[in-house]
Write a structure and sequence with these properties.
alpha/beta; five-stranded mixed sheet; 5 helices; globular
Length: 131
Amino acid sequence: MTLDDFEIHDISTFPIVRFFPESLPEGYALRWEEEMDALITQPEPFVVLLGNAEAAQEAHQDRKRRTLWLKRNRDALARACKGMVGVQPNAAKRLVMQTQSAALAGLFNVPLRVVASEEEAERLGRVFLSE
């Protein structure tokens, strides 16, 4: 898979990778897996900036496949992905998501933060890359 083949992840500013779950069609998980397999084998580390996960209407099977992939590839993901940053402008919702993300970060061994804006997400992503 070449970088031109990506459909689910926006890799135009690699090593900053953008993932927008709110715009995914049902059945996307297989393609997501293929792209993640390609990303974790890249020699250069990357970070993932997550769009509005709250707006996503993700099918159960897609979420299940994605979760299973993350569990199976936990160590490889931890080596390649320096962090994930979600965006949630609403302060109350962001606090809830930050609490949830702490548990997920431990499960997948990748730092996961939730911030208020796209700009803040990109800044934090660059900090993760520099560490």
